[in-house]
Amino acid sequence: xxxxxxxxxxxxxxxxxxxxxxxxxxxxxxxxxxxxxxxxxxxxxxxxxxxxxxxxxxxxxxxxxxxxxxxxxxxxxxxxxxxxxxxxxxxxxxxxxxxxxxxxxxxxxxxxxxxxxxxxxxxxxxxxxxxxxxxxxxxxxxxxxxxxxxxxxxxxxxxxxxxxxxxxxxxxxxxxxxxxxxxxxxxxxxxxxxxxxxxxxxxxxxxxxxxxxxxxxxxxxxxxxxxxxxxxxxxxxxxxxxxxxxxxxxxxxxxxxxxxxxxxxxxxxxxxxxxxxxxxxxxxxxxxxxxxxxxxxxxxxxxxxxxxxxxxxxxxxxxxxxxxxxxxxxxxxxxxxxxxxxxxxxxxxxxxxxxxxxxxxxxxxxxxxxxxxxxxxxxxxxxxxxxxxxxxxxxxxxxxxxxxxxxxxxxxxxxxxxxxxxxxxxxxxxxxxxxxxxxxxxxxxxxxxxxxxxxxxxxxxxxxxxxxxxxxxxxxxxxxxxxxxxxxxxxxxxxxxxxxxxxxxxxxxxxxxxxxxxxxxxxxxxxxxxxxxxxxxxxxxxxxxxxxxxxxxxxxxxxxxxxxxxxxxxxxxxxxxxxxxxxxxxxxxxxxxxxxxxxxxxxxxxxxxxxxxxxxxxxxxxxxxxxxxxxxxxxxx
Length: 637
Description:
The chain has 26 helices and no strands. By secondary structure, the protein is mainly alpha-helical. It has one domain (4-633): Sodium/glucose cotransporter. Helix 3 runs parallel beside helix 16 and helix 10 (161-174) packs across helix 11. The longest helix is centred in the middle third of the chain and has 56 residues, at 187-242. It starts with a helix and ends with a helix. The relative contact order is 0.16.
């Protein structure tokens, strides 16, 4: 049960969030640039923290807790490797996104390519990103909210029966259990509780994000991220203390998970391992996927709300700083709190070693220890802080997807196609803002409908992830290679659409995920490159206008020379890649060194001394900081 202090903390957060939206409504109402990009006035640190808050979804710490328990710390590299994509955005592409002076990544297609094929591609991307992909992700996030809300928000005990029973009747009519325990005799009561919680959360979130636009989203993100980090730090401190202290973590793990007491056969060394030599079940194929996963995904070049935050920055330097701040907060700081917390929860709530069942059920049980820990270990006040942090994480993800999704509907569908083709007139800036606000509500309505059908769309979601793998490299190539064309991107999309169901049928097992992603990336990229070579490039006037406006790095010599401009694209690409390598190496070294020290992880078998190994990693990590920090802070001419 929640105490009065807990409720007051949650209430204070709600009041602040709604106030942030109301304070920003006047500026946001001026035009789409104010509404979707905060007038391009964001400082780098604020945009970076907003990125981190948006990816601090409420279910992510549960995912991490489950992965540590059933697959070990090394499995988290599937999340950490995305740091490379974030840093590529920072040192190579963030400034390009900002200089493009567009509102959405879909609009970029007509700036980069031109012609009818670019217009078709823009419409396809707006429909896919703004509706199919965005609403599915939003529905998944809302559905995951039940895991956080169910143990704490007991509406059937607080609300009068005259209000609660109609909600329960609606849930029963839908026939989809919205509870973490569908076998419970109270399944529909719990489902009604969760539906009310979800509706309450989205009501508050929609109110401030719809009225204040991106400016209110970012302002609330700052508080939300602070709450998340503070709440997680307090949670980790209490859990680790109750587990025996930081120094005792590895010994307790060794005691609990001895040879005859394991979770699906994983050993203590494999649980604690950061490296592939000590980790469990590492293959060359898995390492290949870990190495390429940052590239073979839909946001490889920042496409989506990361690009939106980059475009909203006040300068090119701020756009670069945003990506670096985001990477440090997302990969380094957040992980160093979750690692000891995840191990501490394993000690306080050990699994039933004699229980049998599929790994998915075991993973789900381990994930729920995170919520159980909040309920059973935290005192009043701290519990309210942590629950508020979890609700803030959810709100941050929801407000981002509402604002980002409505930008496609408004800018790329309504303004670009509906108004000139159907209405035959140019919409006013204020009318566009009101359309954007209405789009928020429609996207939310679609997501809520999708949420009720999640059990039947999992194949579609797997297909969506595969499509992302097929699009990642072509999206990066459009910035780096002058011959890339709209038809090449369309070829990659078509190849992905044809190949995805084939791969899902031919390689249905979960263990085949890695192979599916690699095959999809290889075939779709080959289709895109072949199309670009055979039918490229775009018209010279379009390429020259894009180059003059964006100044992209990479292979642009023919275009630069045609304009009589210095051909420094290759040099910018080399310097950017060097900074990506230096910063990624630095952050990963510090993560391994600090993380291994915190949890007592073993050194690789080839390291003669664990102390020397960790000291070397720390030294390399710190030594590289001046190099990439200088590049991050440098003011562009």
